Amino acid sequence: MAQQNMVSKHETTQMISDFMLELGIPAHLRGYQFLRSALEMCVEDMELVGSVTKLLYPDLAKHYQTTDTKVERAIRNAIEVSWDRGNGDLFEELFGYSNSPEYTRPTNSEYIAVVADHIRLENGLIG
């Protein structure tokens, strides 16, 4: 159910990549590729956010010829790096709290849901 209004898949991928870099996720991490693909899938179908372990990780694992566990761990690592090094003001805007030490980082599901929703809203991808 693609709800993209006259935005190509390439443009969506570019928006996601740009935003991931703003979030402080280095492109050299294995989790970067997994997370970008996860966000692409969730931007297109937000229902996947509710089935991260049942649908999203297995689909990614199959696509990248690896295991669900490795996908989950790589995404978690990318999010941890982002949370540790990223823009606190941006995290405050997105999550309602910053990446300062008194707050724990969001779960993979929370992170994916919030970022995918933000990308959809900011880029008019909600039909």
Q: How large, in whole angstroms, is the Cα Rg? A: 14 Å
Reading the helices and strands in chain order gives: HHHHHH
Q: How many β-strand runs?
A: 0
Number of helices: 6
- What is the average of the pLDDT values? 90
CATH fold descriptor: Arc Repressor Mutant, subunit A
- Which parts are unreliable, with pLDDT below 50 for 5 consecutive residues or more? none
CATH superfamily: Winged helix-like DNA-binding domain superfamily/Winged helix DNA-binding domain
Question: What is the terminal-to-terminal distance?
Answer: 10 Å
Secondary-structure blueprint:
Blueprint: H1 9-22, H2 30-44, H3 52-64, H4 68-85, H5 88-95, H6 108-122
Helix pairs in contact: 1-2, 2-3, 2-4, 2-6, 3-4
Describe the protein in words.
The protein is mainly alpha-helical. The protein has one domain: Winged helix-like DNA-binding domain superfamily/Winged helix DNA-binding domain (Arc Repressor Mutant, subunit A, Orthogonal Bundle), CATH 1.10.10. It has helices at 9-22, 30-44, 52-64, 68-85, 88-95, 108-122. Helix 2 crosses helix 6 (108-122). The radius of gyration is 14 Å and the shape is globular.
Quick description:
By secondary structure, the protein is mostly helical.
List its traits.
127 residues; mainly alpha; Arc Repressor Mutant, subunit A; 6 helices; 65% helix; 0% strand
